[in-house]
Design a protein that fits this description.
5-stranded mixed beta barrel; 3 helices; OB fold (Dihydrolipoamide Acetyltransferase, E2P); alpha+beta
């Protein structure tokens, strides 16, 4: 019985230790996810949240040597980050209103390299935007299926 209670308690502690990325507008909080920085792009995909956010504030500085030429994005960079920041309510944020929320970064906690494939795969898990046409959705679905197949 002690073993069962001990296991349940330790599982509860582990669950509490996991970061909760749910947006809390106006409250400073820690968020983790994938970040793409490129030409007119500052996109953050928070882990476990099916949204894309515009990243502003103390955005991670990126040396030119780490940037790669990515199709349509110029010298872009993808990285996995953890930041302290404040998120807004839903709206149209960033370049041409491309972000569903804006995350204003107060402090960078962690920064690790990531790949464009990781970013694109995470993007495939997002719901299609309201403005997308049926043709856009078919292209997107086919692209995501091919990407998932290629990355297996």
């Amino acid at each position: 019985m002690r073993l069962v209670v001990g296991l349940l308690l330790s599982c509860g502690v582990i669950a509490c230790a996991a970061r909760d990325n749910r947006p809390e507008p106006g409250n400073r909080k820690t968020y983790e996810g994938l970040y793409l920085s490129g030409f007119e792009a500052s996109i953050f995909l928070p882990e476990g949240v099916a949204e894309h956010w515009w990243l502003s504030g103390d955005v991670p500085p990126v040396p030119g040597s780490e940037r790669k030429g990515l199709p349509g994005l110029g010298d872009a960079l993808v990285m996995r980050i953890a930041v302290d920041g404040t998120v807004t309510d839903k709206g149209l944020w960033g370049h041409l209103g491309s972000g569903e929320r804006e995350l204003t970064v107060a402090r960078i906690l962690e920064r690790k390299p990531a790949t464009l494939d990781e970013f694109q795969l995470a993007s495939c898990k997002l719901p299609s935007p309201e403005w997308a046409t049926n043709e856009d959705l078919q292209t997107s679905d086919a692209y995501c299926a091919a990407l998932k197949s290629r990355l297996k």
